[in-house]
């Protein structure tokens, strides 16, 4: 689960009775912030395991996709559903100063944390001030 | 795509947009389920799905990044309540562009079917989903009536 570009192939097998007919996707909530070294994207995708996650980045775009897999007994009927799809998707336009080849991604308890480093020439450099 | 420049609009406009969204939801009847007396507005953390079979009822709480130790699950008769807290650590050095993730305490109360057995409840947390399984007292199976 490191490196940008194609992290894991997404599995298309989602054992979910609902949401089959409707092709709408869930938009994972995100926190995005920037520090001196890069941009950090934290996306929430509960129900997505490492196998169901796909992170794709090229020069211009970052695409996050996830397939929800939850344990369901056979013959289960939905009584109530806030979550009416099994697919998460969200994309962001990237800018040129980001090093998209070395994105670091980590998934834990349904929280995907990605660090997109800035190219070294764009990182703020400390300038030593000498005193005579 | 348009999400980016939405952040530059003023909050009043966004509130209008939310209200509009709510009205659209109603018009389109987006939720096929009748609103329960304990129902909470759309977007409340954590989202919940409930599924049932004749043998058991399963409640799924989509609560990513929660410490399982902070989750409290209790059941009284058929009323299940789940509470916990989700802490989002804020990097004070960083500049934030979006903060959409829920941060704080949560609590949800869910009325289950009347025939659930509060003595037989199991809960597990995996991949950010808390699954609470409650067995039902008697399987509600259709009874075949023989015609004499």
**CATH class term of chain A:** Mainly Beta
- How much helix is in the residues of chain B? 10-25%
List segments of chain B where confidence is low: pLDDT < 50 over at least 5 consecutive residues.
1-7
| Number of helices, counting only DSSP H or I runs of 4 residues or more of chain A | 0
Topology-level CATH name of chain A: Immunoglobulin-like
Assembly state: heterodimer
Return Rg of chain B in Å: 20 Å
Instruction: Flag low-confidence runs of chain A.
Output: 1-22
CATH C-level class of the largest domain in chain B is Mainly Beta
**N to C succession of SSEs of chain B:** HHEEEEEEEE
User: What is the H/E order of chain A?
Assistant: EEEEEEEE
- The average pLDDT score of chain B comes to 83
Task: Output the radius of gyration of chain A.
Answer: 19 Å
Main sheet strand line-up of chain A: 1-2-8-7
Describe this protein's structure.
The complex is a heterodimer of chains A (132) and B (148). Chain A has 132 residues and is mainly β. Chain A has strands spanning 30-34, 38-44, 48-57, 61-68, 77-81, 87-93, 104-108, 111-117. Chain A is built from no helices and eight strands. In chain A, strand 7 (104-108) and strand 8 (111-117) form a beta hairpin. Chain A is elongated. In chain A, 32% of the residues are buried. In chain B, 15% of the residues lie in helices and 39% in strands. In chain B, a hairpin with a 2-residue loop joins strand 3 (72-76) and strand 4 (79-86). The relative contact order of chain B is 0.19. The interface between A and B is large, with 35 and 42 residues. Strand 1 (30-34) of chain A pairs antiparallel with strand 5 (95-99) of chain B.
Set down the secondary structure blueprint.
The complex is a heterodimer of chains A (132) and B (148).
Chain A: E1 30-34, E2 38-44, E3 48-57, E4 61-68, E5 77-81, E6 87-93, E7 104-108, E8 111-117
Antiparallel strand pairs in A: 1-2, 2-8, 3-4, 4-6, 7-8
Chain B: H1 3-6, H2 11-28, E1 48-52, E2 56-62, E3 72-76, E4 79-86, E5 95-99, E6 104-111, E7 116-126, E8 129-136
Antiparallel strand pairs in B: 1-2, 2-8, 3-4, 4-6, 7-8
């Amino acid at each position: 689960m490191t490196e940008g570009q194609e992290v894991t192939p997404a599995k298309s097998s989602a054992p979910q009775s609902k949401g089959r007919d409707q092709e709408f996707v869930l938009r994972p909530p995100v926190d995005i912030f920037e520090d001196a070294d890069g941009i950090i994207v934290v996306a929430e995708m509960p129900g997505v395991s490492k196998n169901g996650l796909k992170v794709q980045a090229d020069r211009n775009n970052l695409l996050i996709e996830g397939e929800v897999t939850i344990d369901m007994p056979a013959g289960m009927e939905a009584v109530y559903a806030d979550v009416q799809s099994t697919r998460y998707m969200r994309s962001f336009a990237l800018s040129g100063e980001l090093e998209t080849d070395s994105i670091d991604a980590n998934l834990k308890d349904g929280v995907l944390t990605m660090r997109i480093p800035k190219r070294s020439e764009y990182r703020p450099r400390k300038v030593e001030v000498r005193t005579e | 795509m348009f999400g980016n420049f939405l952040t530059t609009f003023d909050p009043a406009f966004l509130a209008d947009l939310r209200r509009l969204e709510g009205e659209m939801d109603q018009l389109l009847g987006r939720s096929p389920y009748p609103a329960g007396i304990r129902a909470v507005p759309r977007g409340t953390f954590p989202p919940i799905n409930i599924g049932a079979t004749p043998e058991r009822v399963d409640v799924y709480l989509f609560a990513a990044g929660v410490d399982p130790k902070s989750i409290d699950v209790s059941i009284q008769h058929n009323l299940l309540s789940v509470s916990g807290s989700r802490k989002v650590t804020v990097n004070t050095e960083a500049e934030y562009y979006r903060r959409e993730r829920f941060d704080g305490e949560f609590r949800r109360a869910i009325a289950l079917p009347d025939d659930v057995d509060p003595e037989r409840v199991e809960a597990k947390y995996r991949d950010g989903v808390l699954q609470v399984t409650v067995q039902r007292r008697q399987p509600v199976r259709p009874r075949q009536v023989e015609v004499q």
